[in-house]
Amino acid sequence: MPTIALVLVLAAAVLHATWNALTKQAHHQLCVLWSAVTLATVLFAPAAVPMLVREGVAPAAWPYVIATIALHAVSFYALGRAWLAPR
Questions:
Q1: Fewer Cβ in 10 A, N or C end of the chain?
Q2: Where are the domains of the chain?
Q3: How far apart are CA 9 and CA 46, in angstroms?
Q4: Alpha helices per DSSP H over 26-85
Q5: Which three-class secondary structure state does DSSP give residue 20?
């Protein structure tokens, strides 16, 4: 495995564990999840929007884009609700 691949995988794991720990400790988990998604959108939009304008999205891809958005929304909602469950 190339070193860069290993570094990227480990960095992703650390970031994922960090935001999960922060969310778990937060008083309002759903707000933290919402904030994380909003921050990611703000950070990545400057790179993504010009690429989408330049290259567009294939019409055949739209059902997958919509399904991905819906699944992520349900996933974040379920994750937030699970953390709110009594222990």
A1: C
A2: 3-84
A3: 24
A4: 29-55, 62-84
A5: helix
